[in-house]
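Translate structure to sequence.
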C-alpha cells in the first residue's frame, strides 16, 4: 500500500516522500506512531501545503550533515584502552563508545548510524568506519585504537628479549581473526599476564564489561529489526485469516445435501 511520510524514516525515505510498504507494517507500526499518512487526495493536498516548509527543513539537514562530515573526516578519533602484549584489547570498542567520544567533541550522532565491523573493535589499530548522515550523505570516520598501557607492554617486551610491538595490528582488517599459531614470545607473554594479580583482576572486570557490551549490541540489533519482524508477523496473520475461513464455507455447502437426503 502507498503512504506519505510525515517525517524521515530510516530505509524508507524523507519527509514528504511517497512510499509503498506492507499493509501490516503500515497499520501496526508506521500509522500508530504518526510516521506516515494514508495515500489519498486529501493527504496529498495537505503535504503539498507543507512542501515549502519540508524543502526548507531538508536544506537545513543537508547543510548540517555536510558540516558533520567535514568535522568527522578532518581528524581521526583516538580511543585508548588497556591491551595485551599481542595487541588484543581487554574489552572492545562499540558504536556506543564511539558516540560518547564524538559527543565529547560536540558531534551528536545516533548509534545506529555508525557501521562497526562485527559490532565492535577488539584490537589496537586504525579503522575506517562508514557513518550514515542524512539521505545519501555519508562520512568516513578514522578511529585509532591505542593501548593505554603501552609503556607497560614495552617493558614486558624488553624482559622477553626485545620482542617487537605488533606493528601490523593497526592495519589489519577488523574482521580477520588472529591465528592460533602465535610465536613463543607471545605465548610466554600471555602466561606472564595471566599470573599477574593486577592483570587478572583487570581481565575479570573487562570480562564483565564485554558481557554488558554484548547485551547492548544484541538490544540494538533487536531494536533495528523489531519493526520489520512485527510487520512480517502482521502480514502472516492477514494471509492466514482467509485460509481459515475457506473450510467453514465448504462445510456449510456440504451440509445442504445431507438435509435433503434426510427429508
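Result:
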Amino acid at each position: 500500500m502507498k503512504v506519505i511520510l510525515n517525517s524521515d524514516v530510516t530505509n524508507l525515505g524523507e519527509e514528504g516522500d511517497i512510499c509503498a510498504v506492507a499493509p501490516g507494517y503500515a497499520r501496526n507500526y508506521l500509522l500508530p506512531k504518526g510516521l506516515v499518512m494514508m495515500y489519498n487526495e486529501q493527504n496529498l493536498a495537505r503535504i503539498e501545503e507543507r512542501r515549502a516548509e519540508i524543502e526548507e527543513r531538508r536544506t537545513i539537514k543537508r547543510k548540517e550533515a555536510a558540516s558533520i562530515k567535514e568535522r568527522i573526516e578532518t581528524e581521526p578519533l583516538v580511543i585508548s584502552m588497556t591491551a595485551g602484549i599481542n595487541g588484543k584489547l581487554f574489552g572492545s570498542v562499540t558504536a556506543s563508545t564511539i558516540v560518547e567520544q564524538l559527543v565529547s567533541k560536540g558531534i551528536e550522532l545516533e548509534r545506529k548510524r555508525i557501521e562497526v565491523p562485527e559490532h565492535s573493535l577488539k584490537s589496537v589499530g586504525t579503522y575506517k568506519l562508514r557513518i550514515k548522515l542524512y539521505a545519501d550523505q555519508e562520512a568516513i570516520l578514522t578511529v585509532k585504537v591505542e593501548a593505554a598501557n603501552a609503556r607497560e607492554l614495552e617493558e614486558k617486551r624488553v624482559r622477553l628479549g626485545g620482542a617487537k610491538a605488533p606493528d601490523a595490528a593497526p592495519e589489519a582488517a577488523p574482521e580477520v581473526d588472529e591465528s592460533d599459531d602465535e610465536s613463543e614470545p607471545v605465548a610466554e607473554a600471555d602466561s606472564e599476564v595471566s599470573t599477574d594479580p593486577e592483570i587478572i583482576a583487570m581481565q575479570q572486570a573487562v570480562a564483565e564489561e564485554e558481557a554488558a557490551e554484548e547485551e547492548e549490541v544484541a538490544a540494538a540489533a533487536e531494536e533495528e529489526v523489531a519493526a520489520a519482524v512485527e510487520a512480517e508477523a502482521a502480514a502472516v496473520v492477514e494471509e492466514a485469516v482467509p485460509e481459515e475461513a475457506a473450510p467453514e464455507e465448504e462445510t456449510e455447502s456440504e451440509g445442504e445435501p445431507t438435509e435433503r437426503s434426510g427429508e
